User: What shape does this take?
Amino acid sequence: MPTPLTADLSKTAFAFRGYNVTNLGRTRELLAIEAYRGILREELARYSAIAAEFTSKGVDLEQRVESTTETALEHYEESIALVAAVEVAHLRLLREVHQIEPAQSQLYFGYSLGELVALCVAGVFDLTDIIRIPLAMARDSKSLAADVTLGVLFSRGPAFSLNHVQQLCRQVTCEGRGTIDVSSMLSPNTYLLLGQRETIARFKTIMPDLLPSEVHLRITDQRWPPLHTSITWQRQIPDRAGILLETVPGGFSAPVPNVLSLVSGKPNYAPHNAREILRNWADHPQRLWDAVDTCLSAGIETVVHVGSEPNLIPATFHRLSENVQAQTTGNGFENLTMRAISGLAKRTWLAGLLPARANLLRAPFVRHVCLEDWLLENAPR
Assistant: This one.
């Protein structure tokens, strides 16, 4: 008998991963399953054809999957198409093979490219239209990535202010040797920075001016398309995307289920504003922490992670869970159950005595399901 995906879809969120340096995951294993093969091939072919419109060579995502050849930055268009194709295929496999309807869940959200997929599978736009916008910007995104470095700014101790981090970024940018900006807020003590040339190193030298001494900056050697930062302004990517969005069909209905935007971390999509939010998606930092907070406040009990080898969103939840467990051990919380934790916020007299983010105590009780693993474990025999 198949393992239940979730006991209650109404308390479930589907989380869609974005672009990463690895994008194949276990897709080749899924392709090997007869009951799944047709749907996967159909979506891989569909998005291969769309990606080929924006490259000077043919695109064969199925062949890339079968050969287990990961995409590099130079294949950014293929990466975009592969992430989208696999996520769409995962949901179709749930519906058409397992008769599970993801739209009955409480909400969707996605990191970076995953938000575009989430919004479209929630019925606001057709993804085959929307995906053409990041594909149209892919060449310039790759070009900008040539001198962009990723930095992980973190503290093992206190939280620190996003405003202070952004102020330091602007001070470095003002020196005229490249732009640096916050790309993502993973938690109140973890941020991702993207900076041109030596700006990340320069940030490191001046950050003691505003940030606590416990804050550290790890500089990586990976190159990243600088989406969700002001670096995109140098090729007018947000404005050009906004112009393309003007004539995309759809966008006048509310998503079903609700979709959190990582522009804000809140369920802001409405029939009148999807284009405006997506324009801001291009250059605003991804507020993943706020989305996690919103999920916990909404009473989410299960998060289903959609896409190949999801890592960033599960890691964020896992890190929060570990921190909560470490903080509460020895403080009388050890024997609290999920029901007890969920009930705390419902008692208004008690809520006033608890920290403003008491809902974070629920993090260790949230169940996480990696959808590609579940699909493999529950494949029809």
